[in-house]
Amino acid sequence: MGFYRDDKTSRETLAFLEEDNCRWQLVDQDGICTDGQFKRTDDPNILILKKENGEEFGTVHVAYMSRRREQGQLYLFRDSKVTRFYLVSTDPAFTVESGDVDADV
After folding, report:
1. Strand pairing partners for 80?
2. What are the percentages of helix, strand and coil residues in the chain, rounded to 5?
3. CA quadruple 94, 63, 65, 55: dihedral positive or negative?
4. How far apart are CA 77 and CA 58, in angstroms?
5. In sequence order, what are the beta bridge partners of 24?
6. Closest by alpha carbon to 20, among 97, 102, 98, 76?
């Protein structure tokens, strides 16, 4: 599914890797990582995000994806907050413990 950046500050990122056990990772504006697994619903545009401990984190709604997948937009609903993200790359990128970005290619 790729790598997304928030549309307000561009400092928050959200990445998905379906091929590796449906992993997701959010890096917030302070650099804090939250990750886990996502589950598809009956609606292919809605994903349920769960943390590593199984606790529900939020819901993602894919609002738009171009036919060639070079443009996309999704919304992350968590707590009482909604954040809009835009597609940066269809190659997922995950942050590793050192703080560097690990591009899964």
Report:
1. none
2. 0, 60, 40
3. positive
4. 5
5. 16, 36
6. 102
Answer yes or no: are the C-beta atoms of 77 and 64 closer than 8 Å: no
For 61-97, give the secondary structure using H, E and C: EEEEECCCCCCEEEEEEECCEEEEEEEEECCCEEECC
14 to each of 6, 27, 100, how far by Cα in Å? Answer: 8, 7, 15
What 8-state DSSP symbol labels residue 42?
Answer: S
- 20, 4 contact by CB (below 8 A): no
Of 47, 58, 69, residue with least CA distance to 12: 58
Q: Residue 94 forms beta bridges with which residues?
A: 102
pLDDT per residue as tens digits for the range 9-67: 889 999 998 877 899 999 999 999 999 999 999 998 999 999 999 999 999 999 988 77
